[in-house]
Amino acid sequence: MSTQLRFRDLPMARESLASVTAVGTDGAVATDATLFYPQGGGQPGDSGVFITADGRCLTVHDTRKGEGDEVWHYLDPEHGLTVGQSVTQQIDWPRRWAHMRMHTALHLLSVLVPYGVTGGSIGAERGRLDFDLGEASLDKAALTAELKGLVAADHPVSSEWISEAELDARPELVKTMSVAPPRGAGMIRMVRIGDIDYQPCGGTHVTSTAQIGALHVVSIKNRGARNRRITLAWDEATEGQA
Ligand SMILES: [Zn+2]
């Protein structure tokens, strides 16, 4: 059974009601709808809690995709939930908020480094993208200053859907070489950041770039002859270490 992906249209929602549709092995529980983002596109799966009608608070350790749009939440195996039961889903918001901020920051990085993206990863503390940079070189301090400029400019972030045919006619919109854009039912989800970025993405984002906050380029490292790995981190996390 497919799960309604509420995190797509309600990226700022932290709590919602859902109904259990399937109970799997290893503590897996699927629901008819979810705010929990399932691991994908370099972004970790959400954690949080399910609260039952009789007040039990069950920890959700991870969230993964199943078949199609089905989403599985991983709880302790003795969760006791059964099909048809209602639960209040609460996301671990500080963690998700950090993922959303870092994810959106990586979109900005892809604007400033206009080369093919060969890989990436999003964490609550750090995020990185690998670029097929060839012979080009980058300056850490200059890139940090440009990144802070795009954050401060407070560009709005929004999403929309276009047809697969429309995307196929404009292959330049796809920046990520290693991950195919999320497809389904002939439609592609596009994420727009002001007039600076427009690319297919199924992840969660903040609604304006100022929400990203203060961050900087930690390192630019060689990953083979052509690839460079650029890692970002929050300014506050490095305070006191310098
Ligand atoms: Zn994205």
Automatic annotation (TrEMBL):
<dbReference type="InterPro" id="IPR018163">
    <property type="entry name" value="Thr/Ala-tRNA-synth_IIc_edit"/>
</dbReference>
<dbReference type="GO" id="GO:0005737">
    <property type="term" value="C:cytoplasm"/>
</dbReference>
<protein>
    <recommendedName>
        <fullName>Alanine--tRNA ligase</fullName>
    </recommendedName>
</protein>
<dbReference type="InterPro" id="IPR051335">
    <property type="entry name" value="Alanyl-tRNA_Editing_Enzymes"/>
</dbReference>
<dbReference type="Pfam" id="PF07973">
    <property type="entry name" value="tRNA_SAD"/>
</dbReference>
<dbReference type="InterPro" id="IPR018165">
    <property type="entry name" value="Ala-tRNA-synth_IIc_core"/>
</dbReference>
<dbReference type="GO" id="GO:0005524">
    <property type="term" value="F:ATP binding"/>
</dbReference>
<dbReference type="GO" id="GO:0002161">
    <property type="term" value="F:aminoacyl-tRNA deacylase activity"/>
</dbReference>
<dbReference type="InterPro" id="IPR012947">
    <property type="entry name" value="tRNA_SAD"/>
</dbReference>
<dbReference type="GO" id="GO:0003676">
    <property type="term" value="F:nucleic acid binding"/>
</dbReference>
<dbReference type="Pfam" id="PF01411">
    <property type="entry name" value="tRNA-synt_2c"/>
</dbReference>
<dbReference type="GO" id="GO:0006419">
    <property type="term" value="P:alanyl-tRNA aminoacylation"/>
</dbReference>
<dbReference type="GO" id="GO:0046872">
    <property type="term" value="F:metal ion binding"/>
</dbReference>
<keyword id="KW-0479">Metal-binding</keyword>
<dbReference type="InterPro" id="IPR009000">
    <property type="entry name" value="Transl_B-barrel_sf"/>
</dbReference>
<dbReference type="GO" id="GO:0004813">
    <property type="term" value="F:alanine-tRNA ligase activity"/>
</dbReference>
<feature type="domain" description="Alanyl-transfer RNA synthetases family profile">
    <location>
        <begin position="1"/>
        <end position="230"/>
    </location>
</feature>
<keyword id="KW-0862">Zinc</keyword>
<dbReference type="InterPro" id="IPR018164">
    <property type="entry name" value="Ala-tRNA-synth_IIc_N"/>
</dbReference>
